[in-house]
Amino acid sequence: MKNSTITPPRRTFILSAGSVAGQKEKQGPLGNLFDIAGDDRFGKDTWEKSEAEMQRLALGLALSKSGLKEDELEAMFAGDLINQCISSSYGLSAYRIPFLGLFGACSTCAEGLLLASLSGFDRCAAVTSSHFCSAERQFRFPLEYGGQRPPTSQWTVTGSGAFILSALERDLSGIRGDFAPEITEVLPGCIVDRGISDAGNMGAAMAPAAADTLERYFQAGHAPEESDLIVTGDLGIEGSEILTDLLLSKGYDISSRHADCGKMIFDPASSDTHAGGSGCGCSAVVLAADLLESMKKGSLGDILFVGTGALMNTLAINQGRSIPGIAHLVRIRASAKKHFGGDLL
Amino acid sequence: MKNSTITPPRRTFILSAGSVAGQKEKQGPLGNLFDIAGDDRFGKDTWEKSEAEMQRLALGLALSKSGLKEDELEAMFAGDLINQCISSSYGLSAYRIPFLGLFGACSTCAEGLLLASLSGFDRCAAVTSSHFCSAERQFRFPLEYGGQRPPTSQWTVTGSGAFILSALERDLSGIRGDFAPEITEVLPGCIVDRGISDAGNMGAAMAPAAADTLERYFQAGHAPEESDLIVTGDLGIEGSEILTDLLLSKGYDISSRHADCGKMIFDPASSDTHAGGSGCGCSAVVLAADLLESMKKGSLGDILFVGTGALMNTLAINQGRSIPGIAHLVRIRASAKKHFGGDLL
């Protein structure tokens, strides 16, 4: 298999992002950064409709910030955790934009950015979401059941992130900040299954996939030191430790520059979320509300954003199968806007 | 929204295809064309494992026919109908090829070919599947229940199709035939929801999406007469009639050149499949085993392959929601191999 990374065929910038989050996320360390932090219901009468509404809101916010109109987008790449990705299809049916459905579990944000950057479109969007209550209903128990959670379990983030991408330099003028987040390289991940079958320990199931993708990236001639931050999707506390250990055993020390969206979004001391956050929305809102904003200001220069996903369903777990993991890598750089055409500033 | 169609950035050819089908499909009009027609179990002890095994077999067949090795592919685009697309993630975990998960319901075959052709990869694969028994278990009733099916219902095809795509002219020598099927244009579809909420009439839910995509295609300056065949994914008997009527009301008469994979795969007189076949595997095996073979021989020159999907899940139906549809268009032309470099023949 080729380990070479892929450079998008056109320079691709993330013009804007919209983030929508729930109550518990609002109480976390990043709570003040989200565009909207609602009451988890978002005015709807089922959790599934609430999650779909979050995607609709997130894309609306991102569009509004970009200054672009719906009919200027050529495609939207979207997916989520719910069976048949209905949060995306119902939530985004409000937009008349060609729709390309994805399934990458919690790696969907990275998968969407990756495919959007390769697609060659002038302008497109990547959207994803998760909702604690719709995920609990589907994957574990009805909320009322109050099932016990092991220490390694993660808490599904209620959140949706939407990103507007453009390959047109003239669009950069709309970015609020001196730097334009640019997708400079991508590396899609392989399916990695190391035999973990404990659905209460997704971090352990996904960490080997993250290690695999990062190892392939480093083998392609990159060093961990090239990046200011290597941020994984949502390995949580348990999975993050496994990842750094696995990579160290291969000779790559990322410990000084590794961060994890699942660890960033909740305060472990006060949130009762055990090993941290998870869900498609987790890495999406952390990237949208925190990391990209730091890049636009210039306080973060170059990151490896590694979305991680567990590619199972409840039936597979009930049938005793192990959990295949995947991790997609997207390298994002803060490019100084002043280096582009004079009409930009 | 832009209605312009998209030309792949590189000339992209379908080198080979593998098709795996079940017993009922073997008894249908195309029964002799499939590479493998098994006993529906494919040696596995659950229907879910059987479906995953079909994807593994289909990709293995396609690879073998292409003359390429696993490690020469840069990516595989795959998805299926089952919750969280586990047929793809489990079935294709056998291959160490970067994996990009898709969800497009029964439009997945077209979505995979579309994204593969835009991705700019030298070589990649598109794979999908469905299985009558895993779909029945998930979407309707356990098989033992023997639920009654209305006349508009379609029968989920047990089948998997895999396609190897290449943008390298030197690979064309491996194609068996004088013509190379080439993806010349694509048009991703928008989500279209016309309020159909009857899960026993997917054809009616998907037909407006197919009409929408084809109308956008014709509005972009194309005429139905440019194509030898306009073949929809799996609208079945009911949906096909709705599609041709809808387009006629817009001034486009496709009736003389329209075909539908859902109508082609079963004999309505003897198969008891009511309105025809459906499922991700339906259009995939018809394209792989029938249409592409006709193109390679030169008996079919230029087709519009329009994959159609219903983007719902069982929970959405139980909550009384309507069914959003989608249709992705892929134009495929039989390009004479003799027009390429002399080293090809």
In short:
Chain A is an alpha/beta fold and 345 residues long.
Structural description of this entry:
The structure is a homodimer of 345-residue chains. Chain A has eleven helices and 13 strands. The first copy, chain A, is α/β, with parallel strands linked by helices and 345 residues long. Chain A has two domains: 12-172, Peroxisomal Thiolase, Chain A, domain 1, CATH 3.40.47; 178-344, Stage V sporulation protein AD (Peroxisomal Thiolase, Chain A, domain 1). In chain A, the strands form two sheets. In chain A, strands 1, 2, 3, 4, 5, 7, 8, 9, 10, 12 and 13 form an eleven-stranded mixed β-sheet that branches. The first copy, chain A, has a two-stranded parallel sheet with strand order 6-11. In chain A, strand 3, helix 3 and strand 4 (99-101) form a beta-alpha-beta unit. The first copy, chain A, is globular. Chains A and B meet through helix 3, strand 4, helix 4 and helix 11 of A and helix 3, strand 4, helix 4 and helix 11 of B.
